[in-house]
Amino acid sequence: LANRLNKGHFYIGGRYIDLKKIVSPLLALAGESDAITSIGAASAITSVVGSMDKTFEIVPGGHAGLFTGSQAVKTTWVVMLDWLKLRSGALVDHCSIATSSKPLIGELTLLRADDE
């Protein structure tokens, strides 16, 4: 994990990039059989961004297979859809997410409105 990205800052094209400036809700995914990016490396993004609303999920699949594998539509895509539904339309008071006093990791079910 000793790379610049996991330290939260790096340069691209001569511009300084500070990941703490990312404050929008974040869904980070890792493939449980990914041979390129370890689960630890993938999860590190949650500790370097400025977002209060951060979610990290381990899903079936490898590096690309977590999105394109034969089961992705039943696994990864469902995780992404559920995550988006919690943050879309009338289901969410967007101000309450942005002003939360602590990260909402593991507490996202508290934001769910009555089941549809």
UniProtKB/TrEMBL annotation:
InterPro entries linked to this entry: AB_hydrolase_fold, PHA/PHB_synthase
Organism domain of life: Bacteria
Protein name: Alpha/beta hydrolase
